[in-house]
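lol so apparently i was supposed to do this last week
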Amino acid sequence: MSYDDLSGRTAVVTGAASGIGEAVAVRLAAEGARVALLARRADRLETVVAKIRAAGGAALAVAADVTDDASVQGAADAVHEAFGTVDLVVNNAGVMLPHPVDDGRLDEWQRMIDTNVTGVLRVLRAFTGDLVAAAAQGRTADLVNVSSIGAHLVFPTYAVYGATKAAVTQLSQALRAEFGPRDVRVTNVEPGLTETELADHIGSAEGRAQVDGMLAEMGSLAAADLADLVGYVTSRPRHVNLSQVVVLPTRQA
Ligand code: NDP
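anyway here it is w/ NDP bound
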């Protein structure tokens, strides 16, 4: 099968300050795309952008909080001003805050829902017009949503996180029905355990120990493995849509 490199593409990657989003941004830029990197930590974004530019790529840091409507819209305006119409959106920003349901941590449940679900919707709303317009002009257009294997597998204390990711997976399938007929591809990626900063935000020692135990037992993917996958998916010929991709460490059954 032929391979389209990404030169001429214009990408937005959310959650690009670390982990999977950072690796995806670096990879897409290395393949020739212009990449706008969104996350809250401006300093971290600037570091990644400097790395991309030093390697000859084109990148823009845009500090943005996906839980804030105005912030996302402001980011979209900044991206449009710098790069014009976007044709590749990677909805990757997310948080994972496991708690026993009995603890009733409505605050952290809300934070996960607002970041992992409503955040995805805010970004979608900001760039839907771009994707549809790019496809109508004959360009390749991609929406990549980073869900999780947690959308299907159940883990104690991960009920709400899993529910947010199940929502993303369901959303991706529904979006294909709306976007596919207009030549916008939608890909839902469900990673398994991946070595990133995600678990650093777990507040409890038990929660952290649970993740460390899983890492010791089954190893993990690297963020670069996910970047490799997103690079592959988005570089297929325009008529080929990998709609659902599950990627796990080999030892994660
Ligand atoms: P990281 O914590 O390393 O990355 C998360 C990114 O999201 C950071 O860049 C963070 O930057 C950004 N982010 C968090 N909250 C917001 C916000 N409100 N607005 C904008 N950006 C935000 O973890 P991962 O790379 O692992 O996570 C990326 C995605 O992968 C997540 O959706 C996660 O659920 C998913 N995933 C991860 C797995 C894993 O094992 N690591 C497995 C399955 C799925 P900043 O704090 O600067 O805003």
